[in-house]
Design a protein that fits this description.
alpha/beta, Spore Coat Polysaccharide Biosynthesis Protein SpsA, Chain A, two-stranded antiparallel ribbon, 13 helices, 12 strands
Length: 302
């Protein structure tokens, strides 16, 4: 099947609100490009388990697939890439919220450029190998509200799905010595497209090796590690671009100037998610720490 598929992940454990926000933004902002809308219903038992959701999409032509709530979003995306036969695939996570008109046309115009293999709505230079320690120290320097005991209590009280398991898994990796950022991640600046909203040719995506993912740390490695999705595409001799709301495709060296992720007011961001929204909701000191983590000395926090 030729053309474009827009694949949106709908996770049952996240509740109805993120889906409602996505649909509202999808309706408010024309895509500018013909496409098939495909929903990945993750963690649902089947058609009878989506009654609350069905009425929200009754007016939208779409396909749907039910997948178990195992693994990470990336498993769902690349599994869908195997099954869908469209020329180009655009993946949007559960918390994606479209911010600009012609959003899909803008992504598509950039990804079909000669030599381009991957585009995304945001990217970063941050690295867990170089700059991560400074980021952690910045968090610890923000006073009692971010002291270690307070952060532990906050983590234990965090009711978001899977957060406690993630923290326990992360701690076990550190204790076992498996967590070695200097070995697994390139130093800063570490160019990588964020996986909350990205697009590529199906032929290119099928050449990307996902690898096993038992812990969240593995998902971090796939997004920004030495063998990240971005680095795999670059090794194919292809370029990667961040696409702004202005429709321009920014090469990695200019991502800091695109004002799309943890920079300024993110006024050029094309697709928001929980991380970009958290930055805007942060106090000035924490926003500055986040911006510095992503862009180093070129940070321009809100």
């Amino acid at each position: 099947m030729a053309g474009i598929a827009v694949v949106h992940l709908v996770r049952k454990r996240n509740g109805l609100a993120p889906f409602e926000r996505f649909l509202r933004s999808y309706r408010e902002h024309p895509s500018g490009a013909a496409h098939e809308l495909a929903f990945l219903f993750k963690g649902f038992k089947g058609e009878g388990d989506t009654r609350e959701y069905d009425g929200l999409v009754a007016d939208l032509p779409h396909s749907r697939e039910f997948i178990p709530d195992v693994g990470f979003d990336l498993h769902a995306y690349f599994g869908a890439a195997q099954r869908l036969k469209h020329d180009y695939l655009c993946f949007l996570n559960s918390y994606s919220r479209i911010l600009g008109d012609e959003w899909l046309a803008k992504l598509h115009r950039c990804v079909v450029q000669e030599g381009v293999g991957l585009v995304g709505a945001s990217g970063s230079w941050q690295s867990m190998a170089g700059g991560y320690a400074a980021h952690q120290n910045a968090g610890r320097s923000l006073g009692k509200s971010r002291s270690l005991p307070a952060r532990i209590i906050k983590g234990l009280l965090d009711r978001r799905p899977g957060m406690l398991q993630r923290r326990v898994g992360f701690a076990l990796l550190k204790l076992s010595g498996a967590l070695r950022p200097g070995r697994n991640f390139p130093p800063f600046p570490n160019y990588h497209i964020r996986t909350n909203a990205f697009m590529g040719a199906r032929a290119t995506l099928l050449r990307i090796q996902l690898g096993p993912m038992r812990f969240k740390f593995s998902a971090y490695k796939f997004e920004s590690g030495i063998d990240s999705m971005t680095n795999q595409v670059l090794r194919l001799g292809l370029r990667v671009l961040v696409v702004g709301r202005d429709g321009k495709g920014y090469p990695p060296q200019l991502w800091h100037a695109s004002n799309t992720f943890w920079q300024s007011r993110q006024e050029n961001l094309l697709v928001a998610d929980n991380q970009t929204e958290a930055y805007l909701a942060s106090d000035p000191v924490w926003a500055a720490a986040l911006s510095s983590y992503a862009w180093g000395g070129l940070a321009r926090p809100a």
